[in-house]
């Protein structure tokens, strides 16, 4: 991809905007279409785009494989952990009323934010990990034969 | 069958046509990657069918206005099918990625991803096994 | 009227794309067509008022799925082999299944009916109680994360399992196979 100058310049400009958009979608899931899954996929797409244009080694220098694998598990832990925290406050598992006992509907916001963050983290990790696994194999068909 | 019945059910039948196209690809075509694409088409058609169950004529997306009161005259479409299909889409991408990983490994082991050639290779393998170990295993494998 | 026209146009394009996927033999073009199919279905979801679903379908179907299939193509093959099988049996299976499904839809309520059973059950309760219980404007997120939170926990676990499965299948095997090949060579050298 060394000779695709336009692609490289445009990708460098776009990647930041894509990551910002992913955060926007994540935190505005309460007010507009969005939420954890969409945000996770968009965030992963930013890194995958960088990897496609600049090469797997460069993106793995920014976001190493071990970190991606840890993220995969971290999201599930955050989600399940929110439920455990509710239980520690004396409520049922995943009962968001635990986060503001005096005003039940305010705790919902906190709870939903926490679980959507967990979902977003896991989806990001899984998508990037799958891309790393597929792209890490040596290609059988060279670029010229495409 | 009245005109209203026909118009009211046409969307279900059209989505069934899409579903059957996807199913045809899975059953008739031999290339494994094409089968996965056919499966995706089938899945997406099922999602469209399901979402169309929740649509209310004259309705809008089930998102309340952020500030201010909720207008009681506005009709909102049913949000429950949307939630179920969100989960289904994510599970669909999970199975697709696992299927593609399996195709990669099949290619590395057998050097082909065409179903006919794979069946031929497997048949030859089973015949070799029978010839080599058939008696000791108590008959044909 | 306009809405019906848009739906009809979208649906025609969807069917044309699906038929093209059936007949095309160059796999690169077929993967691109599947991305087009996902995008068109996302548009159809918007006309059906399912904006969250459209968002997810566009991101997942037209984005991730296309990239993964292209990565698979780069590692496998570029064209489909000419098939010598007859299409009579698949056509029969498909026709019978389609007829059975259409027979099943004859009992269903009309499209867009506000009094259908699906709109009157739990969903109506969710719509009524959500502003008071949860106070989140996006009802789909409210149901997904709060009313049906357990299901979403299971779904996150499914995504994690898929990632773990792919890693078990693919990642890191090259190093193992290279070491196994070296071990296979050594006994030959020694003997």
Give a nutshell description of this structure.
Chain A is an all-alpha fold. Chain A has helices at residues 5-27, 36-54, 56-62, 65-88, 104-135. At the B-C interface, helix 1, helix 2 and helix 3 of B face helix 1, helix 2, helix 3, helix 4 and helix 6 of C.
Structural class of chain A: mainly alpha
Morphology of chain C: globular
Largest interface, with counts of residues having CB < 8 Å to the other chain, equals:
B-C, 86 and 88 residues
Overall pLDDT metric of chain A: 90
Class of secondary structure makeup of chain C: mainly alpha
String of helices and strands of chain C: HHHHHHHHH
Give the DSSP E fraction of chain C (strand runs of 2 or more residues): under 5%
Helix content of chain C: over 70%
Helix content of chain A: over 70%
Q: What about the largest sheet of chain C?
A: none
Task: Describe this structure as you would to a colleague.
The complex is a heterotrimer of chains A (146), B (141) and C (191). Chain A is mainly α. Chain A is 72% helix and 0% strand. Chain A is built from five helices and no strands. Chain A has helices spanning 5-27, 36-54, 56-62, 65-88, 104-135. The mean pLDDT of chain A is 90. Chain B is 69% helix and 0% strand. Chain B has helices at 3-28, 32-52, 80-110, 115-133. With 191 residues, chain C is mainly α. Chain C starts with a helix and ends with a helix. The model of chain C has no long low-confidence stretch (mean pLDDT 87). Chains in contact: A-B, A-C, B-C. Chains B and C meet through helix 1, helix 2 and helix 3 of B and helix 1, helix 2, helix 3, helix 4 and helix 6 of C.
């Amino acid at each position: 991809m060394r000779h695709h100058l336009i692609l490289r310049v445009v990708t460098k400009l776009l990647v930041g905007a894509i990551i910002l958009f992913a955060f926007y979608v994540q935190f505005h899931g309460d007010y507009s279409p969005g939420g954890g899954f969409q945000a996770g996929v968009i965030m992963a797409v930013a890194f995958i785009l960088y990897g496609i244009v600049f090469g797997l080694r460069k993106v793995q220098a920014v976001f190493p494989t071990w970190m991606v694998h840890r993220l995969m598990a971290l999201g599930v832990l955050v989600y399940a952990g929110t439920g455990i925290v509710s239980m520690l406050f004396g409520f049922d598992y995943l009962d968001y009323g635990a986060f503001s006992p005096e005003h039940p509907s305010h705790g919902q916001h906190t709870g939903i934010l926490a679980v959507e963050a967990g979902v977003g983290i896991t989806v990001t990790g899984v998508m990037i990990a799958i891309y790393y696994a597929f792209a890490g194999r040596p290609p059988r068909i060279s670029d010229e034969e495409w | 069958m009245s005109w209203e019945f026909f118009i009211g059910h046409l969307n279900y039948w059209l989505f069934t046509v899409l579903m059957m196209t996807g199913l045809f690809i899975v059953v008739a075509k031999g290339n494994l990657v094409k089968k996965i694409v056919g499966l995706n088409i089938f899945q997406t058609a099922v999602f469209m069918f399901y979402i169309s169950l929740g649509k209310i004529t004259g309705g809008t997306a089930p998102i309340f206005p952020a500030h201010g009161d909720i207008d009681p005259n506005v009709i909102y479409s049913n949000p429950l099918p949307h939630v179920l299909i969100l989960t289904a889409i994510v599970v669909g991408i999970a199975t697709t990625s696992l299927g593609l990983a399996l195709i990669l490994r099949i290619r590395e082991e057998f050097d082909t991803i065409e179903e006919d050639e794979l069946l031929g290779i497997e048949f030859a393998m089973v015949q070799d096994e029978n010839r080599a170990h058939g008696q000791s295993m108590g008959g044909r494998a | 009227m306009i809405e019906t026209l848009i739906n009809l146009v979208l649906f025609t394009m969807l069917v044309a794309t699906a038929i093209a996927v059936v007949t095309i033999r160059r796999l690169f073009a077929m993967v691109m067509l599947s991305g087009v199919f996902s995008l068109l279905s996302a548009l159809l979801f918007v006309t059906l008022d399912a904006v969250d679903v459209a968002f997810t379908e566009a991101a997942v179907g037209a984005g991730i799925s296309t990239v993964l299939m292209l990565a698979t193509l780069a590692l496998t093959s570029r064209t489909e082999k000419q098939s010598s099988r007859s299409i009579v049996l698949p056509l029969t299976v498909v026709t019978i299944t389609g007829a059975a499904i259409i027979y099943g839809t004859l009992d269903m309520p009309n499209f867009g009916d506000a009094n259908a059973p699906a709109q009157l059950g739990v969903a109506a309760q969710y719509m009524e109680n959500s502003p008071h219980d949860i106070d989140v404007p996006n009802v789909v997120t409210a149901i997904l994360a709060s009313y049906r939170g357990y299901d979403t926990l299971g779904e996150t676990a499914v995504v994690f399992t898929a990632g773990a499965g792919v890693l078990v299948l693919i990642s890191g095997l090259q190093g193992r196979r290279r070491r196994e090949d070296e071990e296979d060579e050594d006994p030959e050298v020694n003997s």
